[in-house]
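Schema walk-through. Below, the input block comes first and the output block second. Nothing else is stored per chain. Lengths vary across the set, and this one has 431 residues.
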Amino acid sequence: MFKNKLNYTILVSIAMKLLSALGLFSISVLLAKELGVENFGLYAILLSTASIISIPLSSGLPVLLTRETARLSEHERYETWKGLLLFSIVLVVLVSMIGGVSILFYFNSNAISRNASYLVMLIAIVPLMGLDRLRGAVMQGLGSSLLSQIPESLIRPYSYLTLIFIGIIFCNNLSLNYVFISYILSTLLSFTVGSILLSRLMVGRLKTIKPRFKIRYWFLSLFSLGALSASQTLIGNADIIILGWLGSIKDVGIYKVALQGLALMVVTQTGISAVLASKISQGFAKNDLEEIVSISDVSVFIFTVMIFLSIIIVFFFGDFFIKIFFGIQYSQALNILLILSLGQLVNSITGPIMTLLVMSKNEGSALNSIILGGIAMLSFSLFLIPMYGSKGMAVASTIGVLVTNITMVFKAYGKLGFDPTILGALRRFKN
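--- output ---
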């Protein structure tokens, strides 16, 4: 019964992620056509700026909230839970204000300052975006992984898309003012719907509770989780930087196309991961190892099947799709994509080890594994890129993924007492 419910949750989560991706893609296509190259470029720069401001808000805090919400609510430690929520809200607002002011000063002498009004509008909603992330993290910690995704995956992109359509129909020329106001309204609607959903889950549990604060523990946790998140982001973007340094611009362009293909291959896993964080945190909160193992086994089976299907599709049809969408000049990206997909295969067959380590408060072990993988990737890239270009980078990246995941598997087995890989899941299935 539990596995059937989990499978249903995972399938619905994947469907929502696919719908979200479709909505965002549609928005990009419409805006690129309606705004023109220059205005669309400005739009992209300003949104990226807002994303940069919000980076500190996504570096560990949502994970901490999900993990601690599951644990504190399960053991009815409502005073500490309320303290954590207040601490998180204050931190989001402060970081948003400091980041916003810093960005405004930075761009003061830049050409973008001519469009400061747009930037101010976006900076104003960064706290709202941060609070919405916190809302989603709390809902995941309470076990409502599907409800937590509705505002961000469905409400925001499709309300934004609807407003864009209205603007195209009723306005002669779609202006940046209208676009940014539409973005703000869709974000506000998403936040409002999310807040209503969260309030129904909380049902006034914390209203009369006096908060208790554990500032030192939370900051120490944020430091380790933030370091883990920063390392993932750094290593995840290091391949492009290293290739640009040791290879050619053409190599980077071809490699970037391969990465776009890889992103499409893992979209289903993104949907699954959104469920796993919630379910695994609940399992650790209840100290229910049997449930955790069951969740891990279901996910590793789905991961493995989906990546095998993706590799088969890429092997037979990848060249066709690359030439159709990107052009014949990028045909070399197919071999790079196939090499990178081997790394993703390793990610899949080793199961949700990262989530298992983080939700069991062993993020330090995960961080050490990522650093080792990063060192391996850098070491091999120094030798392989000069000889093989972008293919060499793909091989080095895959070796880095292999080192990271094998190291984490051993650490997870030592910390948790079970094998989270596909081999371990198959042994348990037979028994």
